[in-house]
Design a protein that fits this description.
Radius of gyration: 14 Å
Distance between the termini: 11 Å
Mean pLDDT: 93
Strand content: 15-25%
Number of helices: 5
Low-confidence stretches: none
Order of helices and strands: EHHEEEEHHH
Oligomer: single chain
CATH superfamily: Mannitol-specific EII, Chain A
CATH topology: Mannitol-specific EII, Chain A
Shape: globular
CATH class: Alpha Beta
Number of domains: 1
Largest sheet: 5 strands, mixed
Structural class: alpha/beta
CATH architecture: 3-Layer(aba) Sandwich
């Protein structure tokens, strides 16, 4: 399960969750993850309604499960400013690691990837690297390595 991370976006100007997931959904089309932006956006919105995907330490872990998603993919977005996002620690978000999953892999690959990224987010060195780096290859390598472990 390699090459899941498709892209890291820097200096995104989203101000809130809605703007962030709108951006992620549009980029999913550009990156070939889906052909249906609206279906992916609806999947993100549905997941946010079930409970916030804001974690701790300035990270969010939004995920969209949809028949419109072609392959399991991860996209990272670093924000210019703090983003209003309901989170476990009630703090704003500075980066989102978004997971896109086809419906038929929702209980297998999705849960494995989600668990691996959640574990990475509990490691201060990983969080510092993602928040502090402006090197796309370095961030992608750190996530890919963490998922493979």
């Amino acid at each position: 399960m390699s090459k899941l991370v498709k892209k890291v976006f820097f200096d995104n100007s989203a101000k809130n969750t809605a703007e962030a997931i709108e951006f992620l959904s549009a980029q999913a089309v550009e990156l070939g993850i889906t052909d249906d932006k609206d279906a992916v956006l609806a999947a993100f919105q549905e997941r946010e309604e079930q409970g916030p995907t804001g974690m701790t330490g300035g990270f969010a872990l939004p995920h969209a499960k949809s028949t419109a998603v072609k392959d399991v993919s991860i996209v990272v977005v670093k924000f210019t400013d703090e983003v209003e996002w309901k989170s476990m620690d009630n703090h704003a978000v500075r980066a989102a690691i978004a997971i896109f999953v086809p419906d038929d892999e929702a209980t297998t690959t999705h849960l494995r990837v989600l668990a691996k990224i959640a574990a990475l987010l509990m490691q201060p060195t990983f969080c510092d690297l993602v928040l502090g780096s402006d090197d796309e290859a370095e961030i992608i390598a750190a996530i890919e390595e963490g998922i493979e472990e």
